[in-house]
Design brief:
alpha/beta; two-stranded antiparallel ribbon; eight-stranded mixed β-sheet; 11 helices; Rossmann fold; single chain; 10 strands
Length: about 300
Amino acid sequence: MRTLPTINRVLRTPEARFAHISDFPYAVHYTEVGGLRIACVDEGPRDAPAVLLMHGEPTWSYLYRKMIPVLLAAGYRVIAPDLVGFGRSDKPADRADYSYLNHVQWMSAWMEARDLRHLTLFCQDWGSLVGLRMVAEAPERFDRVVLANGGLPTGTEGIPFAFKIWRAFARWSPLFPIGQIVKAGCVAGLTPQEVAAYDAPFPSSSYKVAARVFPGFVPTTPNDPERQNNERAWDLFKRWDKPFLTLFSNRDPITRGGQKIWQKLVPGAQGQAHAKTRDAGHFLQEDKGAEVAQAMANFIRDTPLAN
């Protein structure tokens, strides 16, 4: 039985905050895990191959609105959760309740509660730091992995200067405008309506605790508390012979080039149709969502697994 932390104070974004969003028509499904309500989109046939879309910082499942229709049209079941502290999911009010490990535990417990299997993971940003650990904890639940603009740092690598700036901004800036932050990570920008949709989960600064602390949880030093757990996950991926695809963008100053180590070390990445998404920033789901989703659909189609 998985042991989850006890959370004393929880904030829940009112549903009315999402009423104005017209370009994300999918029903929300809630699962309670450890006293927290975790939200997700779950569309498509329940017996179809399942795609798990994991968002990062400081977004929510709305990030995948351009990818979901393409994947549904290809015949897949599409599941896109909101991490704890983001989107429609509950938001612990106390900073001390957040940690990298807690998020892995919460989302792994959520996956188990919904009994998700035969998954193809798509992960980006913190969706990668959490999602790849979910794969390492329960590899039998995953058939494939697609990694985009993310990774699994152990604290022994160099830190991009752009990330140092972002981490300092998240910690010290008196203002933290979520929608504008996402817009800055897109080459094509966002409309005012899209900016408002990214702001919707956060009625006030008290709801932004997770968004504020996430950059500080990325392992950047060898003594990071999650170094060993990430190294154990890397040990699994160095033996991972199921299909593994990288779809990084060319205009992300933080993760650019990060695909090379995965292509080199993961057995299942050998011979795959790895692609570099052109004219896309950190949030390639915004800049080139339909293109990325089609590449993912082709990957699933072209890598059938033996029964």
